[in-house]
TrEMBL record:
<feature type="compositionally biased region" description="Basic and acidic residues">
    <location>
        <begin position="16"/>
        <end position="33"/>
    </location>
</feature>
<dbReference type="Pfam" id="PF00355">
    <property type="entry name" value="Rieske"/>
</dbReference>
<dbReference type="InterPro" id="IPR017941">
    <property type="entry name" value="Rieske_2Fe-2S"/>
</dbReference>
<feature type="transmembrane region" description="Helical">
    <location>
        <begin position="101"/>
        <end position="122"/>
    </location>
</feature>
<feature type="region of interest" description="Disordered">
    <location>
        <begin position="1"/>
        <end position="45"/>
    </location>
</feature>
<keyword id="KW-1003">Cell membrane</keyword>
<keyword id="KW-0001">2Fe-2S</keyword>
<feature type="transmembrane region" description="Helical">
    <location>
        <begin position="60"/>
        <end position="81"/>
    </location>
</feature>
<dbReference type="GO" id="GO:0016705">
    <property type="term" value="F:oxidoreductase activity, acting on paired donors, with incorporation or reduction of molecular oxygen"/>
</dbReference>
<comment type="function">
    <text>Iron-sulfur subunit of the cytochrome bc1 complex, an essential component of the respiratory electron transport chain required for ATP synthesis. The bc1 complex catalyzes the oxidation of menaquinol and the reduction of cytochrome c in the respiratory chain. The bc1 complex operates through a Q-cycle mechanism that couples electron transfer to generation of the proton gradient that drives ATP synthesis.</text>
</comment>
<keyword id="KW-0472">Membrane</keyword>
<protein>
    <recommendedName>
        <fullName>Cytochrome bc1 complex Rieske iron-sulfur subunit</fullName>
    </recommendedName>
</protein>
<keyword id="KW-0249">Electron transport</keyword>
<dbReference type="InterPro" id="IPR036922">
    <property type="entry name" value="Rieske_2Fe-2S_sf"/>
</dbReference>
<keyword id="KW-0411">Iron-sulfur</keyword>
<dbReference type="GO" id="GO:0004497">
    <property type="term" value="F:monooxygenase activity"/>
</dbReference>
<keyword id="KW-0560">Oxidoreductase</keyword>
Length: 355
């Protein structure tokens, strides 16, 4: 149905023929050599003159917003219900991950339906009359501000948002549900760390195992001035979580003369001058591997943070923020070095939960 098929009394009011709101002439003359060609005659949409057609468009827009809501619910359901390792065959793509396919399909449909609903709403129900406006100065005088507000109110009125409650409610529902897709993605960040960052595999009675020989260390194996690296008993390189655990539990074993140890707690937590410190630098977590026998200093090769192992492994140079944590050690009945507990403080760089 076109506007030509509608009786004139049903058509929206038109502006007077040949009248231009911006004041330009329609016929060139000596005073105004350039005529304004004007705008083409406005063609009314069927929704402007037939309320039944407008209602149909309203239902289409509402249906699209509803589809977006259902797609968002589908996204959440897929994220929760579909195993991450399940695959399906999709022609002509082939075998693909079922979870990725479902998430992409539902998320894309939710976005498309919101966009398509907004476009259909604007093209069929909002006002589409062309309006010529005068150019205005860059500054915004009170009159312009008043006009902007008036235009905004007119646009809000023409959108029929207050009158078309079905569109309004379904649109709000679609926009409210869609952000839940992003919220659900936060689940892959994993569970809250709790106290995991404060604890390692070390516990009372765990033997100190030489990283190179994979054999438990005896006190007699550690010579004065030597540097040995150790790991907890039971941690093997073939373990799935080896890298995660060794990054927290790696030890430096150094033997000093007991009289050279300045810090009382360090002496109490050592065994016959054998001290065990975390190998993880407290700056950015690099492994410490350089030891100066004469000064008892250890050096991080990444940013040159230097720690004094004869004085509680305090920082004497570089960007590290605090001393290396010490592990309390002793020997068991067989003479093997063992831990007497876990580190008393978190290893590695500081983190925000640190108290």
């Amino acid at each position: 149905m076109s506007s030509q098929d509608i009786p004139e009394e049903n058509l929206p009011a038109e502006h007077s023929a040949g009248h231009n709101e911006h004041g330009a002439v329609t016929v060139a003359d000596d005073k105004n050599p350039f005529a304004d060609p004007g705008l083409p005659p406005h063609e009314h949409r069927v929704q402007d003159i037939d309320e039944r057609a407008a209602k149909r468009s309203e239902r289409v827009v509402a249906m699209l917003f509803t589809v977006s809501m259902l797609a968002t619910v589908g996204f959440i359901a897929s994220y929760v219900a579909i195993p991450h390792d399940k695959s399906i065959f999709v022609f002509p793509i082939g075998h693909i991950n079922a979870l990725n396919f479902a998430l992409g399909l539902t998320l894309g449909l939710a976005l498309f339906a919101i966009g398509a609903g907004a476009v259909h709403w604007a093209r069929t129900l909002m006002s589409d009359e062309e309006i010529a406006d005068e150019r205005h100065p860059i500054e915004a005088p009170p009159e312009v501000k008043a006009k902007v507000m008036a235009d905004f109110k007119q646009g809000a009125k023409e959108s029929a948002l207050g009158r078309r409650k079905l569109i309004r409610n379904t649109m709000f529902g679609a926009l409210a549900l869609f952000p839940l897709s992003g919220v659900m993605l936060l689940r892959d960040l994993g569970p809250l760390p709790g106290t995991k960052l404060r604890h390692t595999l070390w516990s009372k009675g765990k033997l100190l195992v030489n990283v190179n020989t994979n054999e438990p260390l005896r006190a007699s194996d550690v010579a004065v001035g030597s540097l040995t690296f150790a790991k907890p008993e039971g941690l093997e390189e073939t373990d799935e979580n080896f890298q995660t655990e060794i990054a927290k539990a790696a030890l430096m074993i150094v033997r000093l003369q007991p009289e050279n140890i300045k810090d009382k707690q360090e002496l109490d937590w050592s065994y016959q001058g054998i001290v065990a410190y975390s190998k993880i630098c407290t700056h950015v977590g690099c492994p410490i591997s350089l030891y100066e026998q004469q000064t008892h200093h250890v050096l991080c090769p990444c940013h040159q943070s230097t720690f004094d192992l004869s004085d509680g492994a305090r920082v004497i140079f570089g960007p590290a923020g605090h001393a290396l944590p010490q592990l309390r050690i002793g020997v068991n009945d067989q003479g093997y070095l063992e831990a007497l507990g876990d580190f008393e403080e978190p290893v590695g760089p500081a983190f925000w939960e640190r108290g």
